[in-house]
Each structure stands twice: as C-alpha cells, then as structure tokens.
Amino acid sequence: MSSCSRVALVTGANKGIGFAIARDLCRQFSGDVVLTARDEARGRAAVQQLQAEGLSPRFHLLDIDNLQSIRALRDFLRKEYGGLNVLVNNAGIAFKPDDPTPFYIQAEITLKTNFFATRNVCIELLPIIKPHGRVVNVSSLEGSKALENCSTDLQKKFRCETLTEEDLVDLMKKFVEDTNNEVHEREGWPNSAYGVSKLGVTVLSRILARHLDEKRKGDRILLNACCPGWVKTDIGGAHGPRTVEEGADTPVYLALLPPDATEPHGQLVHDRVVQNW
Predict the structure, then answer these.
(1) Angstrom distance (rounded) from CA 90 to CA 83
(2) What is the pLDDT of residues 155-178, one digit of tens each?
(3) Domains of the chain
C-alpha cells in the first residue's frame, strides 16, 4: 500500500452495527476499509461474508481493551497508509437488563470498555488522522438520558464548556468508585452503567473536538459522537425497532462528510440531526 492510499477503519466490526458500517463504507468510501475485531476467526469470517457480496475489506485484529493491540494497529496504519482518514469507534459492550452481575462490577467493566478503552483508541489514533479526516464515536441517547438523571451539580460539571479531559476521566472514575462503595445514587448518579459510559463518550467527543480546533484547526478534521438508535443487535436486543442498516446510516453519514464541510463538529448527532445538549 502506498501512503497516499485512503483508509477508513471501524472498531468492533465483525457483527451488528459495526459490520453494517463497514459494509456501507466498502460501498461508498473511496479507499480501503479496515474491519477490526478482537476475535480473529469472527473478524475474518465477517471479511469473507463481505467478500462474498463483492466487497473488499481488509482485516486487522483489535482488542480495544488492550493498549498493545491498539498500538500495533496504529503502527500498521502508519506503515501501510501513512495515517488514517476515517475512524469509527463502534466497539462497545452492554449488560442485559436481567443480568445478575452485581451493579458495581457491571459499572467497572462497562466503563473500562465503552469509555476508557475508546479514549485509549482516540489517544493513539487521533495523532495519525490526516487532514480532512473524520472521527465518529458511536455513543447513545442513553447518555443524554443519564445526564438528565444526574444531580444538578453533576449536570453542571458535564455541561461545562471548559471541562478538561482529565476532569472527565476523574468523573468517570468516581462513578465506578461510588458504585463500588454503593453510594452512587446518594452521590447524584443514575442507575445506568451503560448510560454513564455513553455520557462519557459524548462529552469526550466534545472535548476532543475542542482540542482539534486548538491544535489542528487548519486540518479541518471533524469529530462527532452519534446515536444509531435502538437497533436489533446483540446489545440492543431482539425488540429493537431498527435494522443494523438503519443504525449504520448516521455513523456513515458523519464518516463521509465532504472535505469542505465545517460542521457538525463536537456534536451528538441522531438521525443526521444535531441534538441539543
């Protein structure tokens, strides 16, 4: 591959919304599409499925919970393409409502992947995003709901325009700590680990977009969070009213914003519409 080749990458893309996003990008993106998964066999099976449809994705192993795995992917992208044009952070987990796992363990595991690991991917891959690059963090309106169910004090902190990345990390750690000490409700947190993790992703997206404006304004990189809606997947469950194709629509729309676009940026987008925060 020459470093002038364009490349788009989707995390957690062997099934569900991630798979549908990878498929759409294979059809619409002018360049290579890298489908990643933490399970090599499942990832390669997903690639074969798309190849059977006449599409040509590449596969790369990625476990976002493993920093070495993220860095190996970064090094591959640098070597093969000289960077990255489109990053879709789709990988994530959710416990089922009837899961008997204690809430504090659910909180720790959910935030570890959905917030902290997603942040690690951003830390390692944002520096190699090329000019006019697009970054899409798959979040959820469940994060907005979690914000509404926070105490007034916490809402104020999350909405603060000058909240730093370090402050946000401390808030996410405090939620995990408070659940472990069984005081999270008393401390003003909602009862949704998934909601808080996605609240973190949305706020992180706002902060990272601000960083890009400060450090790389001329590169016109656009970074947004989005909600794919309630989709019939392993995470969404069998009752989701949307297909994975419908769920992929907004993430793909944001990934393919034209080079001259200046917005949306640092926003939460649902059904291609910027949401009030």
Answers:
(1) 19
(2) 999 999 999 999 999 999 999 999
(3) 7-275 (3.40.50.720)
